[in-house]
Amino acid sequence: MTAPHDRPTAVELLEALREWMERDLLPGVEGRLQFHTRVAINMVDIVAREIAVGSSQETAHAHVLEALGVATDAELVLAIKNGEYDTTLESLLESLRPVVEDKVRVANPKYLR
To answer: What residues contact residue 39 under an 8 Å CB cut-off, 6+ apart?
Structure first.
């Protein structure tokens, strides 16, 4: 289903862009432009993975923050800075492990292997 938009979908457009950069653009450039093309390909991959996971990671992240008694990442940072988790550091780290894994799953899933 592509409603309310028709095909190509956002993911299909990203795949086409990636394919063009990788097959047509990259072989014809070198140096700085080649590096920036590789960076752009990685950016397209990240956006595609972010779209693929949808709001599930956002929901899971919100549940972790709620379980920790904060509403935002900024509040969590402040609570950590203020030592509010000093006595439960191991538990905090276990709570945050899935959050970090979700971020890596989008940024570069190869790092989870």
So the answer is: none
Residues 90, 98 contacting (CB under 8 angstroms): no
Query: What confidence tens digit (pLDDT) does each residue in 77-93 have?
Result: 999 999 999 999 999 99
Burial grade of 30 (CB within 10 A; 0-12, 13-18, 19 or more): exposed
46 Cβ neighbours under 8 A, 6+ residues apart: 106, 107
User: CA–CA separation, 72 vs 88, rounded Å?
Assistant: 19
Two structure tokens written together for 7: 């095909």
Whole-model pTM over 0.85: no
CA 103 to chain centre: 5
